[in-house]
Amino acid sequence: LIVSTPSGSTAYSLAAGGSMVHPNVPCILFTPICPHSLSFRPIVFPDRSRLRLKVPDSRATMWASFDGKNRVQLRAGDSVVVQVSQWPMSTVCLVDDTNDWFKSVREGLHFNLRKAQGKLEVKG
Questions:
Q1: For the chain, how far is it from start to end, CA to CA, in angstroms?
Q2: In the chain, where do the E strands start and end?
Q3: Over the stretch 16-65, which tens digit does the pLDDT of each residue have?
Q4: Residue ranges of E strands in 32-124
Q5: Would you tell me how many other CB atoms lie within 10 Å of the CB of residue 17?
Q6: Which of 11, 35, 54, 117 is the least crowded, having the fewest Cβ atoms under 10 Å away?
Q7: 66, 63, 74: which is closest to 8 by C-alpha?
């Protein structure tokens, strides 16, 4: 399960089938990794949400990692609470947040880019 902010949505979450979300959208993304059910889909929650993710009593242990680091073992009954910080992190933009984001998506993911096609050769 991936829980991310819009800033993290174009990396881990996108790779797992989550949506791309513009950084100005105030939300929390909830993206399942390899779900075993067709009804378990990515969800976008408002940024005022407080999510409690609890390890079911039927599980022995689970692992949580934070941005791919600091792995922590969780046992049955343990939970992790996720919410947006009241102290947002400022980012530096080359032009502005919208132009920078679209440029990053376009160049990094080749989104909506087409290669020029060569001429069609007809033999005969």
A1: 57
A2: 2-4, 27-31, 43-46, 50-54, 61-66, 69-75, 79-83
A3: 888 889 988 999 999 999 888 888 899 999 999 999 999 988 877 889 98
A4: 43-46, 50-54, 61-66, 69-75, 79-83
A5: 14
A6: 117
A7: 66
